[in-house]
Amino acid sequence: GYLYQARDQGPEIIRARLAALESAYAFGVTRDVALSDLPGDGSASTQAVAANKAPWAYHNVRWRLGDDVFWQVLRDYIKKTPQLLASLPAFEAAAIDNLTEPPDFFRAVLDIHFRAAKTPRMNLAWSRAGGTARARVCQLTAEPNGIVLPLQLYGSSGTALGTLVIRKLDEAFEIPYDGTLSALTPDPDQIA
Predict the structure, then answer these.
(1) Averaged pLDDT, 51-73
(2) Are 171 and 136 in contact (CB under 8 A)?
(3) How far apart are CA 20 and CA 28, in angstroms?
(4) How far is residue 18 from each of residues 3, 41, 59, 165, measured CA to CA in Å?
(5) CA-to-CA distance for 108 and 63, rounded, in angstroms?
(6) Strand partners, 149
(7) 123 φψ region: left (φ > 0), alpha (ψ -120 to 50), beta (else)
(8) Mean pLDDT across the chain, nearest whole number?
């Protein structure tokens, strides 16, 4: 359904919807399994993974490929997929046709985000302390994922951008911010 919406409504609306699902998955799902290994038990946890992992995975693929290449891949996928029957091999074939990198690069990206239980669920907490914002990110996975997380800070000194380079399962950061911090938004470009 999201691919049809991307075709019909354009990337901005879909980007916002994917960001909302990304947040629901990354910060709310309690366990992870490969999409191909999901049990058919209909549990709330299974449904949360099934409903949110694929959009999160596509979002991560977009980050890796860049917007222009990603949207071209989706356009080609829609053209080549009859009645848009979802198929990871068809998406992979469309991507490989559009990439300048070797196919193994893209297959490795798909392995991480679709075929493995490595999609991170995260907790993000923040506080303020005299001229700095403190952020703590916990990845709820067996092994840490390398993630570059842009942030936007809001408060009495206006807005400021920051970036966290997350490499550990539990990591704390200090971000310079003069003024009273009132909010911190992860991945602000994806908020519509």
Answers:
(1) 79
(2) yes
(3) 11
(4) 11, 25, 7, 22
(5) 14
(6) 164
(7) beta
(8) 75
